[in-house]
Amino acid sequence: MPVEPVEALPICRLDDVPDGEARGFTIGDGAAERAYFIVRRGERAFVYENSCPHTGVTLDWQPDVFMDVEKRFIQCATHGALFRIEDGFCVHGPCVGAYLTARPVRIDQGLVYLTA
Ligand code: FES
Question: Most CB atoms within 10 A, among 10, 15, 52, 108?
Fold first, then answer.
């Protein structure tokens, strides 16, 4: 049985997120609550803070809808900025050249963990 470092926080099973899709989640309670989302690309997962670098609003226009219609980019619902899945770099829109704030993740035995 693997020993988990204290700073690894399990967030979901990789299979909970369909390939090419994203899911939102929060960590913390009350004023400390923070919103994130996870994007799956095959056997890889990427986690970002759910905050657009343009204005700071959340990116999803409805729960768990973070992707463009072709599922090639993360898309902000407010002004349509497009971000690369792999690194959160904005390739189109009012914040082109900016990045989403990434959080490190690790996948172990099908579980996705946020790491420190
Ligand atoms: S708020 Fe996201 S592109 Fe403007």
Answer: 52
